[in-house]
């Protein structure tokens, strides 16, 4: 198994993440760091201290989504882990992940999450908490691996054949936000399962704000794109109704209209095995059936 870590000015977090990955990956596993236009010297420090790590530098800033695809193109293993640059995985995660990924119906696998610095904050997969596609962490549901609607993208692994069959991460998403939601929905729609291993809990550094700037319309654009590709018309209308409250919604809508979202939607619909109605029923998601706040 190889690991892809995307970093933009992560400082010492990157070094700690690489240290933990090298300590817990199998001996033939490699770590690919995609240094996405950092200027803090963090990637140079990793390259100096860990010569076995391959550092890839794109010509221009890509953002987390495209950078993950770039990193995957430099891997050689049959399975690929995508990790944030601020995680602490425990020993034994690789063996547990590999066992679950042996099943051909499994599309991706992830762990529970523990907040670094606050071990009481834990989550086991995610679901939507409202029609605006905001997510919330789920409680633990058992001891054995089980299905969840959405895997957290901070630490998720896939087989190479699945990654190639499903076209990787959606580079139509701007910089950051929603990539894990979109990937999970796409895997489910194409007939794969998203599995969570509750016995494996990975430390993750949660931050109150991003350490870099985003275009103001980026996040609502990403949610609108996800909804348009994966949801039926009445659910898309509910999402748009919620997103229009954002001051930057006009810019998000303009970017969306000029994108390839409808082509992606048609391509997925021609291949999918499950639609959003199946998905919502499978996981008991009713957020789109609730009345808007102003009508309550």
Task: Describe the protein.
This protein is of the alpha/beta class. Strand 1, helix 1 and strand 2 form a beta-alpha-beta unit. The protein has 2 domains: 203 residues, Spore Coat Polysaccharide Biosynthesis Protein SpsA, Chain A (Alpha-Beta Complex), CATH 3.90.550.10; 78 residues, no CATH class. Helices cover 36% and strands 21% of the residues. Helix 1 runs parallel beside helix 2, helix 7 runs antiparallel to helix 8 and helix 7 crosses helix 9.
Task: Give a quick set of tags describing it.
296 residues; alpha/beta; Spore Coat Polysaccharide Biosynthesis Protein SpsA, Chain A; 2 domains; 5-stranded mixed sheet
Q: How is the secondary structure organized here?
A:
Blueprint lengths: L1 E6 L4 H13 L6 E5 L6 H8 L4 E3 L7 H10 L5 E5 L3 E2 L4 H9 L4 E10 L2 E6 L2 E3 L6 E3 L8 E2 L7 E5 H6 L13 H11 L3 E12 L13 H13 L2 H11 L5 H9 L3 H11 L4 H7 L14
Helix pairs in contact: 1-2, 7-8, 7-9, 7-10
């Amino acid at each position: 198994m190889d690991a892809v870590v995307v970093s933009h000015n992560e400082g010492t977090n990157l070094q700690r993440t690489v240290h933990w990955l090298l300590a817990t990956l199998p001996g033939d596993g490699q770590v690919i760091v995609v240094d996405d236009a950092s200027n803090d010297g963090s990637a140079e420090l990793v390259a100096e201290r860990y010569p076995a790590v391959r550092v890839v530098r794109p010509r221009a800033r890509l953002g987390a989504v495209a950078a993950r695809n770039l990193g995957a193109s430099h891997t050689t293993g049959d399975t690929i882990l995508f990790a944030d640059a601020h995680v602490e995985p425990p020993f034994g995660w690789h063996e547990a992940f590999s066992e679950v990924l042996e099943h051909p119906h499994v599309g991706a696998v992830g762990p529970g999450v523990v907040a670094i610095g606050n071990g009481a904050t834990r989550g086991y997969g995610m679901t939507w908490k409202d029609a605006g596609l905001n997510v919330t962490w789920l409680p633990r549901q058992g001891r054995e691996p089980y299905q969840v609607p959405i895997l957290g993208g901070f630490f998720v692994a896939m087989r190479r054949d699945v990654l190639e069959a499903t076209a990787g991460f959606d580079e139509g998403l701007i910089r950051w936000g929603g990539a894990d939601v979109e990937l999970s929905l796409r895997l489910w729609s194409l007939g794969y399962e998203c599995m969570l291993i509750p016995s494996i809990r990975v430390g993750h550094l949660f931050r109150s704000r991003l350490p870099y700037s985003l275009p103001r319309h980026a996040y609502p654009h990403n949610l609108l794109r996800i909804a348009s590709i994966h949801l039926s018309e009445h659910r898309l209308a509910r999402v748009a109704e919620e997103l229009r409250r954002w001051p930057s919604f006009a810019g998000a809508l303009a970017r969306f209209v000029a994108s390839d979202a409808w082509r992606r939607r048609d391509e997925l619909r021609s291949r999918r095995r499950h639609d959003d109605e199946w998905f919502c029923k499978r996981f008991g998601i009713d957020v789109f059936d609730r009345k808007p706040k102003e009508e309550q």
